[in-house]
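Hey L., structure's done. Input below.
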Amino acid sequence: MTKYWLVVTTPKNFGVSASEEVNFAVDGFKKGCLKRVEKIERCDKFVCYITDECVFGATYKATSTFYTDYEKLVFADEKEKVKVIYPLRLRTEKILVLRDNMMLDARRVIGNLPCVHNKKPWGWFVHHSLREISKEDFEYIENEMKKQLHQSI
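Output:
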C-alpha cells in the first residue's frame, strides 16, 4: 500500500535534486531518520517542501527501498563539507517539478490541509526532514501544484 511523505529540504539541495545531473533520481536522509526511512517502500510518493522560501517544489516516487552510501557526495551541503551527510539513500523518479516563480506558496494552501489542525503556528508541519502524511494531504498539495503549473504556462 502506497505511503505518502513530506520531505523538507533547503533551496540549495533542491537545486541539486532538480538539476540535470541528479534529476530527482536519488534522495538522501540523515542517519537520525532511519526508523522513518525503513518504512519507505517502492512506489511511495513524496512532496518536497523548500525551507526559507516556504514553497512546495516537486513530487516524486521511490523506485527502490533504502540503501546506504557513504561514498558519493550528491547534495550541496555534502559537496561544501566534502563528506556524506545523507547516507540513507533511495532511488527515486520525478513526477512533477515546479521551477522558480512557479512554485506553490505553502502559506496559500496550508490552511486547507486536513492534517494541520492549528492553522496559525503551522511550522511544526515542516519541522522534520521526513514525515508521513495522508494520501488526501499529498493529493491536495499535488493538485494545487498542477494548477500552479497550468497558470504559469
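Helices lie at 11-18, 34-37, 76-81, 106-109, 135-151. The chain has a mean pLDDT of 89.

-- N.
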